[in-house]
Amino acid sequence: SARANSYLKDLVVHTEMYVDAYVKMAEAGKITGKYKNLDKYKQVFSFAMGTQKLYDYIDDNPGCVAYNVDYTNHPAVIAQIDNFVSINACIEVDLFGQVCSESVGTRHISGTGGQLDFVEGAYKSKGGQSFICTPSVKEVKGQKVSCIRPILTPGAIVTCPRTATHMIVTEYGIADLKGKSTWERAEALINI
Q: Which of 39, 68, 78, 189 has the fewest CB atoms in 10 Å of its CB?
């Protein structure tokens, strides 16, 4: 709802999962796709999940196109879209910039989905940006634990390797890791 009322305009959609927020933004005139250099004017997705309003909106809508995940999530396809922005979440990040979004140690929480595909595609897009968002701390059994750790929890699954990680976001700011040395990455992550 806040995005539908924001100053943003002429947005494009190329996503794995189409959700109700896109419908609100499209109805508010924020999504036009007119500057999209691939699938111009089309909202592209692999699958949709949401309310009946969402399903009614995409049904027979020529501006909404469901493509095979092999196309939608392919990093080379994503990279063709200038100024592409990917936004994902994670469980923890280490000081090297490795991102875990799937497990807490060896305890499996989720699959990778298209996270790495969109991170890599955005990273390589002309003007693209990839954001991995996490709170700086989380509460575990009544104790505050940092989500940015010296090393990942032993057994944690690396969803995004450090070489693909672009920006890490917490409530304290953004650490831009692209092209940084190991030391520079650690300093940037400690600062947020």
A: 68
